[in-house]
Amino acid sequence: MRARVPESSADSGDNDAAARATITVHPDFVRGTVDPRLFGTFVEHLGRCVYGGIYEPEHATADAEGFRGDVGELTRELGVTLVRYPGGNFVSGYRWEDGVGPVDQRPSRVDLAWRSIEPNHVGTDEFLGWARRQNVQPMMAINLGSRGLQSAANLVEYTNVSGGTAWSDLRRSNGVAEPHGVKLWCLGNEMDGPWQTGQKTASEYGAIAAEAAKAMRAVDPSIELVACGSSGRDMPTFGAWESTVLERTYDLVDYVSLHAYYEQFGDDRASFLASGAALEGFIEDVVATADAVKGKLHSKKTINLSLDEWNVWYLSRFSMGTRELSHAPELLEDTYSTLDAVVVGDLLVSMLKHADRVRIGCQAQLVNVIAPIRTQRGGAAWRQTTFFPFAETAAHHGSQVLHATVSAPQTETARHGPVSDLNAVVTASAIDEDRTSIAAFLVNRGRRPLVVDLRHAGFDNLRVLDFRSIEADDVGARTDEASARAAMPRPGAKPVTADAVTTLQLPPESWSVLRAEAVDST
Ligand code: AHR
Asked: Closest ligand 1 atom to the C-alpha of 46?
């Protein structure tokens, strides 16, 4: 699957020696600021994400509201800033009123999306209470599949109006005196997909999204809204969908969504390792389409992107099958390898590189369902391999992304064409007037070690604090916490700094983080 192609500006060398690459940055060349909401996640009523995931009243660590303390602790350690809820495909058949009020009076329903039984023990107030206790921003989705603008406006009234109206007074009588103040709302979910309850054409969706946006904003003008873009880059309607939807909603929404999942097909490791490059192509296409609509409408407003579902997902192995209806079945419980961890790190690098336009990101999902955290019913919660690159990036990224010129060998991939062996992003944050903290995240997608010269004129006096890597191996899925720890970043060869160049050694098929501090000596 992997054939080397020569590249003029970098030394591609022979196949055994290390390849070489360069990255050039300068403190004056800033690409954009990083929105903390880029480090979001997703909790859907799907499989064991809610029931047996964040919520398990019988669990030894459960709090007074029935939410697992061990999962809450790992969520904090992961560094999550925002949580999208309640779906996903689930939301397109959801009646939110079923999930408020006395729990013992709530109905059980058939969840149309995942053929499960939904008992509604967790609903809007329980989730928003958990989000508040976890100190994460909620991002709520409304149902534009089986329902419409009235139920959406009612939900905003329930969550955001302080009192004195029917829905806000219902919330108060349900024991929640203060409004939840939900600022960020998704106008439906993946409405372009044939699998979606109430799938729509772009014109139909654009019309209902615009009307829902008006009604929701009439209730609370301070909210931010996300219009549904495409559920994948390979949807036949991609591009035309965004164009039509944004023409109908441009002045009424703030973001357009995109969803992106990647997996390894067969033995094609090279294409899988290039997932970040595919994501960047997708992001750039959505930006181009949104900006084309901006031009066509003679608008001064810019629509940014909400990557509100992304991850490694072995979707091709999933089938709904003919299971019996049941509550919280084990669905989509992918178990990850060290290679998957490197690819998750690669996707995060690509998101950060586009932080000027991608303002929101939600790794799908938080627990059990294609997730960095897994649980055993009544037992332990544990970190999958993919936990580590997310936690490290969320903890160490700076507030600004620098323009970086990268010169590296390329590899020809079957699915994405020629792709750079090096994916890298460099971020910076001022500590005080004289000191800047630098964090670089780097992926060597190639099979050879990569020696990288990071040229940082302007950050002349640089001191490396830490350099660690995750290396992919051939072991495959890591089925428990002990073996998943193989993806914990480990110290690599010591970086060497001289004449405003820091030289790093990246192992083959690896993700790395460099942390440094620069002191202005002028
Ligand atoms: O995250 C799993 C599913 O993927 C979501 O429900 C849906 O929006 C997407 O297709």
From this structure: 6
Residue 219, helix vs strand vs coil: helix
- How remote is the CA of residue 501 from the centroid of ligand 1, in Å? 44
Nearest CA to ligand 1 atom 3: 88
DSSP SS3 for 152? helix
What is the tens place of the pLDDT at every residue in 392-431?
999 999 999 999 999 999 999 999 999 999 999 999 999 9
Q: What is the pLDDT of residue 15?
A: 55
Structure token pair of residue 196: 């979606």
pLDDT in tens, 212-231: 999 999 999 999 999 999 99
Backbone angles phi, psi at 246, to 5 degrees: -70, -30
- Supply the pTM of this predicted model: 0.96
DSSP state of 62: B
Nearest-angstrom CA–CA distance, 435 and 258 = 37
How would you classify the pairing of strands 381-383 and 373-375?
A: antiparallel
Q: What is the mean pLDDT of the chain?
A: 96
Torsion sign (Cα): 58, 61, 63, 67 = negative
- Measured from the Cα of 87, ligand 1's closest atom is 6
Output the six-digit token pair for 314.
């072995």
- Measured distance CA(397)–CA(428) in Å, rounded: 8
Protein residues whose CB sits closer than 6 Å to any atom of ligand 1: 44, 46, 87-89, 189-190, 231, 309, 364-365
